[in-house]
Amino acid sequence: MALIIDLKPREKILIGNAVITNDSQRTRLHISGDTPILREKDVMKEEDADTPCKRVYFLIQCMYMARNPSEYNEKYFSLIQEIQHAAPKLSFIFGSINEKIIEGNYYKAMKEGRELIELEKDLIEHATTNHQGDTNVAG
After folding, report:
1. Per-residue pLDDT, 133
2. How far apart are CA 136 and CA 113, in angstroms?
3. In a shared domain, residues 129 and 65
4. What is the mean pLDDT of the segment spanning 100-120?
5. DSSP readout, the chain?
6. Residues spanned by the domain of 2
7. pLDDT, greater one: 110 or 87
8. What is the predicted pLDDT for the residue at 137?
9. In angstroms, rounded to a whole number, what is the distance separating the alpha carbons of residues 33 and 2?
10. 13, β-bridge pairs
11. Do 48 and 88 share a structural domain?
12. d(CA 10, CA 25)
């Protein structure tokens, strides 16, 4: 079954190692085969991976696009160990992400990685709000 992707004008898509940029009109692509495909909106650049959970997402993305995904395993598992040590409440999502990675479902792992980034954002906002509240009480 073919994957059908509607591209907006000038939208980019990665298919394997190729970056394809749409022209000035909407385009519908029917893609068959077993190669990694990422829409521009799902791509995270390395310089944008500026938090631990964003780095996790970036590493999963690298696994998804790589010919040899296991070359990223050491960095990935080391990073998630650090995150789990600092925020044990996130362990449940890593179990699910790891399961997807072991199965070779990197795209699904990336989707859960997006959820992880949102959880991280909420944790940071909560910690910042609580910290500011503590400062106000002491002041």
Report:
1. 58
2. 34
3. yes
4. 95
5. --EEEEE-TT-EEEETTEEEE--SS-EEEEE-SS--EEEGGG---GGG--SHHHHHHHHHHHHHH-SSGGGGHHHHHHHHHHHHHH-GGGHHHHHHHHHHHHHT-HHHHHHHHHHHHHHHHHHHHHHHHHHHHHHHHH-
6. 1-43
7. 110
8. 46
9. 8
10. 20, 39
11. yes
12. 8
Assigned token pair, 28: 């519908």
**Distance (Å, whole) CA 59 – CA 130:** 31
Same domain, 28 and 13: yes
Question: Residue 139: its pLDDT value, please?
Answer: 44
Concatenated DSSP letters of 39-76? EGGG---GGG--SHHHHHHHHHHHHHH-SSGGGGHHHH
Contacts for 64 with CB less than 8 Å, ≥ 6 apart: 36, 38, 106, 107, 109, 110
Q: Please state the domain count of the chain.
A: 2
